[in-house]
Write a structure and sequence with these properties.
Layout: H1 3-11, E1 21-22, H2 29-39, H3 49-54, H4 67-70, H5 87-97, E2 102-112, E3 123-131, E4 135-137, E5 140-152, E6 158-169, H6 194-201, E7 206-210, E8 216-217, E9 232-236, E10 240-249, E11 261-268, E12 273-277, E13 291-298, E14 304-310
Antiparallel strand pairs: 1-3, 2-6, 3-5, 4-5, 5-6, 7-8, 7-9, 10-11, 10-13, 11-12, 13-14
This protein binds zinc ion.
Length: 313
């Protein structure tokens, strides 16, 4: 297949909407409650029927970010009702055939038209908005695919839209062997969390603090979840806390991390929690509740990370 033939094949599917995929369950309080439990969202408009009835919504609504949960097909999805190929599966098939067999998700953006309410039965359709020309990326040569998922209620009204960008790329095994320098991924830095990484560079573990109600919060964000104030400053943590929870990753091994890889949720003595790696301890010896202290660790020539070490004292 020549690049021109591939381009023509891809273009034939761009802009076409696939068959709608219907939610298995209508929007319901049980799924909402489990979601809120899992992410720690305590807004009563999602879970307290009386509170929700008196709110501007007039009843239970679902957290907007729960969008994708409603139309998930389950662990063993049934065969599609239609035998017609979907635009997404056809684009994937063409790219696989052209050698772009690996895939990684790169961006996700959601836009909400309205809150979804208890009883809404959602469906989603997928449209390929764009397939880029071949780009050289850190992962190799690949093409970006912009998928647009349109969520609708039972009347056909659009309730939300999600743009999902993936990179289909030529896997390393298919490329001539080179010795790539594997470094840890760079932290995603933004206007909201720049102070945190500036703190790390200065040897300080900073915690964002609301200027209005003084509540501490992490990860950093623009608004206080307690009082909705946009004003904030930061304090410097004493760098001590305990292991609130942890996982030990064994597979798949991703360079340059070493495995088994102990990843912990540290609860600082100031009360906020952050995810980090543990050092100076065998993964098998990690235990919930163990005392730890921060250790600013240079992991490569330009990256310092706040890692945590057991602190029996
Ligand atoms: Zn506040």
């Amino acid at each position: 297949m020549t690049p021109e033939e591939l381009r023509a094949g891809l273009d034939a599917w761009i802009g076409r909407e696939g068959e709608p995929s219907l939610a298995r369950d209508a929007v319901n309080p049980a799924m909402i409650r489990h979601w809120c439990d899992a992410v720690g969202d305590e807004n009563p408009v999602y879970t307290d029927r009386k509170f929700a009835a008196k709110s501007v919504h007039g009843g239970i609504v679902a957290p907007p970010t729960m969008l994708q949960a409603w139309t998930m097909a389950g662990l063993r999805p049934p065969a599609p009702a239609s035998a017609r190929p979907s635009p997404l599966s056809e684009v994937m098939r063409l790219l696989d055939a052209a050698g772009y067999t690996s895939v990684v998700a790169t961006n996700c953006r959601q836009e909400y038209r309205r809150y979804v309410r208890e009883g809404d039965l959602l469906s989603v359709t997928t449209r390929i908005a764009k397939v880029s020309e071949e780009k050289q990326t850190a992962l190799g040569a690949g093409r970006f695919i912009d998928e647009e998922m349109i969520y609708r209620d039972a009347t056909g009204e659009e309730v939300a839209r999600m743009t999902f960008r993936i990179l289909k790329f030529v896997p390393p095994a298919a490329r001539p062997a080179a010795a790539p320098v594997r470094r840890r991924p760079r932290p995603a830095q933004s206007h909201d969390n720049a102070f945190f990484w500036q703190g790390v560079a200065a040897g300080e573990l900073r915690i964002q603090r609301c200027s209005a109600c003084r509540a501490l919060r992490h990860p950093p964000g623009p608004m206080c979840p307690h009082c909705q104030s946009l004003d904030w400053d930061a304090i410097v943590s004493a760098g001590r806390g305990h292991v609130f929870s942890f996982v030990v990753a064994h597979h798949p091994p991703v360079p340059p991390f070493s495995y088994p890889n102990a990843i912990a949720l540290i609860e600082l003595d100031e009360g906020t929690r952050l995810v980090s790696n543990l050092v100076g301890i065998a993964p098998a010896d990690v235990a919930i509740g163990m005392r730890v202290r921060v250790e600013f660790t240079r992991v490569d020539d330009e990256l310092v990370l706040p890692l945590f070490r057991p602190d029996p004292a």
